[in-house]
Design goal:
By secondary structure, the protein is an alpha+beta fold. It folds into 2 domains: 174 residues, no CATH class; 109 residues, no CATH class. 43% of the residues lie in helices and 13% in strands. It is built from 12 helices and 7 strands. A 5-stranded mixed beta sheet has the order 1-2-5-4-3. Strands 6-7 form a two-stranded antiparallel sheet. A hairpin with a 4-residue loop joins strand 6 and strand 7. The longest helix has 19 residues. It is globular and about 60 Å long.
Length: 324
Amino acid sequence: MNIEDLLRETLSDMAHEEQPPPPGRFFPADRNRSRRRGLALAAAAAVTVMAVGSTLVVQGLSSPAAAPKDFTGRGSGETPAETRQGQTTLTVTTLTVKEGQRLTQILKQLSTATGRPLAEFERAAKDGEALGLPAYAKGGLEGFPFPGTYEVSPTSSPDELLAATVTRFNRAAQDSDLVAGAGRVGRTPLEILTIASIVQAESTDKRDMPKIARVIHNRLNHTPEMKLSLDSTVMYGLNKFGAKVSNEDLRSRSPYNTYAHLGLPPGPICSPGADAIEAALKPAAGPWLYFVKTDREKGITKFAASESEFLKLVEEFKKNRRTG
């Protein structure tokens, strides 16, 4: 069966579907049908997502083909623009998925941009196989919607929009040789993406990313084993934002509490960009085990190889905070 036949058969199925019952209420999903639908959506994303410079134009499968609009960049918000197709005028929304955004933020952004209920995107996000996620994602979408600029047609469904962000990730993963590169550093692709997401969350300057990645790798490989002890993972596990972690937060039993648990958290904590993925695959050479944002206002991060050096950086941070 070729792609066109696959799309036609699957879309025919989807057109006659009723709203599904709550997950697990009746019988398990038909995995063969889910797999076929996943292949179709992935193929659809590849067909309907057109590159325009650094922009992807996402059109609904039922919408007529349109010439890609030129895009030179309009910031990070949502910008509606009109494009005429025959006698029909459609409002195309330009939106940017920022590096370091969590899945919850991205789903809300897509909901706002399209006017569709958030629940539709949350439901679509649960079907990782249908969105074309790689097998190593284990069905989880967090970390995989790739940062970039998208022009969204109002005829695009939540499935198509999320599949487009995954399609873009798969291209980036191929460009960075993610799977083979992970093997070269003794990690799985999901572990590398998890490291990249932490690097993204912890960095204020992309020039620091390779060093931060080295700290994470060094701690993971340290003998005796050393906890990562990272605030960003704790905050993610608590669904909180910001840099201030309380003592109560540090007592969290969340599997994302890297102060309490050895090793990496269960998965990515945000969507990393290409620079963070590259840093996770190719960390800088160095003995560092610690990093401290000594001056948050200026975005300065410093690195230490020993506990004594680390304590000096902590004192520098406290001094800058008092005088800032």
